Amino acid sequence: MGWTVADAVDYKGFPADRSKTGGWIPAALILGIEICERLSTMGIAVNLVTYLTGTMHLPSSTSANVVTDFMGTSFLLCLLGGFLADSFLGRYMTIAIFSLVQTLGTGTLALATKLPQLRPPPCHGSASHTCEPANGFQMGILYLALYLIALGTGGLKSSVSGFGTDQFDEKDEKEKSQMAYFFNRFFFFISTGTLMAVTVLVYIQDEVGRSWAYGICSVSMFMAILIFLSGTKRYRYKKSLGSPIVQIFQVLVAAINKRKMEPPYSVELLYEDTPETSRIHHSDRFRFLDKAAIVGEGDLGRNVVPAASAPNPWKLCSVTRVEEVKMMAVLLPIWATTIIFWTTYAQMMTFSVEQASTMERSIGGFQIPAGSLTVFFVAAILITLAVYDRLIMPFYKKWKGKPGFSSLQRMAIGLVLSTLGMAAAAIAEVKRLAVARSQSVDATTTGTLPVTVFLLIPQFFLVGAGEAFIYTGQLDFFITQSPKGMKTMSTGLFLSTLSLGFFVSSLLVSVVKSVTGSSNGGYGWLADNINHGRLDCFYGLLAVLGVINFVMFLVSAAWFKRRKPKPAIQMDTIVNGSTCEDKC
Hints:
Blueprint: E1 4-9, E2 15-17, H1 24-54, H2 60-114, H3 136-157, H4 160-165, H5 173-207, H6 210-230, H7 244-257, H8 319-330, H9 332-337, H10 339-347, H11 351-357, E3 359-360, E4 362-363, E5 366-367, H12 375-400, H13 407-437, H14 441-446, E6 449-452, H15 457-480, H16 487-515, H17 535-559, E7 574-575, E8 578-579, H18 580-583
Parallel strand pairs: 3-6
Antiparallel strand pairs: 1-2, 4-5, 7-8
Helix pairs in contact: 1-2, 1-3, 1-5, 1-6, 1-11, 2-3, 2-6, 2-16, 5-6, 5-12, 10-13, 10-16, 12-15, 13-15, 13-17, 15-16
């Protein structure tokens, strides 16, 4: 048995042979899928707004919302992908199926940007000429392509990291150490894919053709699928334990159905069937949920065959299962106060790219594509991670005796940096608008403004550095503070903040455009042409919201109490006639 992995099987369903399955080679085949997914999704997202405004002739605010809705849906569908993987398909089949869906989506997008029938006629050079926007059919084909890609991304992201870690055995010290390196390389592959997307792929889109760039994405993803499938016999597969989402709904349904029942006089009378070593002791938070563990008449099947089967989980849940749901609920205030960061992040791929498209981007004879300005964003992430790993962590360990900032401290730093980034963006936009107003009408409408695009670097760098802190902080927080049986769910909870951040951005843009539509000479803050709007006020609003959100985060962090390891004495259920929890 020492040559097999206890909780894993091979592709035939037999216990996985340690020497023939798992390890770095299968993990590397899985990482190939991730780098191609990042190449496709980010390569499309960072430069899509210029296609929507310049080719499809959509208003600036509408284009921004199309991008943020696309990205928000991509991350939201991670919850669907995780549910399917945990409940029905398994991680291997989920990756294979949704990779094909994304390949189909990028192929459709390549076709949509190639055929003249699928885009409106080009504008004339006259400033007085009104450009014809894309019609419903043309936008329908574009939406079909984008949301096929979003569906593929959601399925992939929910399973790639998990299936990669399945290739290493946590009970083996050597493989456990290899797993730690896997996470580092996983993040490196994400960054590499993003870097290639905002440089090489964006350049191909602008200088060669979008259909060529999207075709490259489709072909590369198809090749990654073939490479992924080639490792079928080498992978380790782990059986699904069921979806945590279903488990949460079971507790909620059971508690609601028993809402009129009175709880017993002692928590010891609540139902518990979890082995002693895995139990989570009762807590006083969210007492309403305790009703899901009240033993009612017939819950244990005594009227049929005594102890013949486990109780119906939709009617009776164990105390440990209830406490797991409570632990997830305690995370929600922190979860809610990190959404605004991703709303700020969304502006880096929408309005900031639009700003860049109106500014001077030449270096010698080379014209920097507007979407490639996000390379400073990626560079800020990599530099921040390197400085934190090599300088801050060693210094902090010598000073405080701790290996770096806590997860909550990293999230706080990320929120502060993003707020400063929006303040810097507002200042840069004031300067850009001043130059725009000093130009003629033709230049303001169609020309490049005589102001360097490098004026935008501070906002990209500050928000990028903020992401380095908040991304790692959130991932650490949700994984370490969630119950063991809901690690997949906690990852989905983390990714949902990204999704909601993009959707909040879309909502905020719509509200601001509606409220300010009659101001600024009838253009509003978010005019169809940003040179006529007040984007600086919009950035200022985001900075103010960031300050308010940061205060709410501090309050939520103060309320949150970290779970501490249970002392050894708590392993005894009864100590001198009372529960250990009562004594502790």
